[in-house]
Design goal:
Length: 331
């Protein structure tokens, strides 16, 4: 966990009015995420100890039930929503929060917790509750993939294939090792694909092994999209990993596969430090919008969940979500 990472967002907003910060909150914890079931009592105790009143608390395992609970709470006027879970849980919840005068409190109980990491929220219930109790908020952008919101990143290629292996049961059993174990298993079967991309700066085509489009800085349990990506810069940051087998004419051969695996391994080793953007096989892209088509068609993985397939148009909803975040450091 990179709990020491600095927040992505510019935390310059003053505390909100007391009617917002002091009102009762709704707590929803996804018991299917890695730490959800066992952390529920500690979460309740931490919120009570900090004087955060709850209008309701729910341990949920079904998406439809969470949708109904959030809908009913928002319709009744609840303006603080505290979500315990991973990035997939937050992804599902944010669809209900856009366009509402509400504040999201993040309790990082999942496997990746990349949205919390981008905000600078430490990976403990007590620390996350401290941040909620402090009352500081920030406005962050929300990405849109064919109109569907995402918080962290959307990926095509390797990460989507890995996501298919990351079942809730596997993530609970493997814990923090879930992502690397799934990645190693998938690498041996992964094949390059052709992408055509259109950005505000023009079009490009490439044979790639992997493509990531990010709203925040992190994806894949602590890997960086780009080192300077932030949640409030009103831009999408993306990168591709080109397939060297296509350039050498060895695509589809055993030697070509070895070339591709070697490239992916070298890029993967530098992702956590953000140094992958200097690798010759990596192309970094920044744009307010992006259109991607692929052959063969590729699954689209948003915040760890498969939401469809290519083609996909990426856009931004600037400053569309208010979240509790660490207070700015004193100058």
């Amino acid at each position: 966990m990179a709990s020491e990472a600095s927040p992505d967002v510019a935390l310059t907003a003053p505390p909100k009015r007391s009617s917002l910060d002091d009102g009762p909150a709704l707590l929803v914890v996804n018991t299917r995420c890695r730490m959800g079931r066992e952390s529920f009592p500690a979460t309740l105790a931490a919120l009570e100890a900090r004087g955060i009143p709850l209008v309701g608390c729910h341990r949920l395992s079904r998406q439809k039930r969470m949708d109904q609970v959030l809908h009913d709470a928002l319709e009744s006027g609840v303006r603080r929503i505290l979500i315990g879970g991973g990035d997939g849980t937050l992804n599902a919840a944010v669809q209900h929060l856009l366009g509402r005068d509400v504040t999201l409190g993040v309790l990082p109980l999942g496997t990746g917790n990349d949205f919390a990491r981008s905000l600078g929220i430490p990976p403990s219930v007590e620390a996350a509750c401290d941040i909620i109790a402090s009352g500081y908020t920030a406005r962050v952008d929300v990405g849109l993939a064919n109109g569907r919101p995402f918080l962290n990143a959307v990926s095509l290629g390797l990460a989507s294939a890995i996501a298919r292996r990351l079942t809730p049961r596997f993530k609970r059993r493997a814990g923090k090792l879930a992502y690397p174990v799934a990645a190693v298993a998938e690498l041996w079967e992964h094949q390059p694909f052709h992408v055509r991309m259109a950005t505000e700066r023009g079009e490009m085509e490439q044979e790639v092994l992997h493509l990531v489009v990010g709203n925040g800085r992190y994806h894949g349990a602590g890997n960086m999209v780009t080192p300077d990506a932030t949640l409030d810069d009103h831009r999408l940051d993306a990168y591709t990993v080109a397939a060297p087998s296509a350039e050498s004419g060895r695509e589809g051969t055993g030697l070509g596969h070895v070339q591709d695996l070697s490239t992916l391994a070298r890029v993967a080793l530098s992702l956590r430090r953000g140094e992958h953007v200097t690798h010759p096989a990596v192309t970094a892209i920044r744009s307010s919008h992006l259109y991607v088509d692929a052959q063969p068609p590729q699954d689209v993985n948003a915040d760890g969940e498969i939401i469809g397939h290519t083609p996909v148009r990426f856009e931004l909803a600037p400053a569309a979500l208010r979240v509790y975040a660490p207070a700015p450091a004193p100058h």
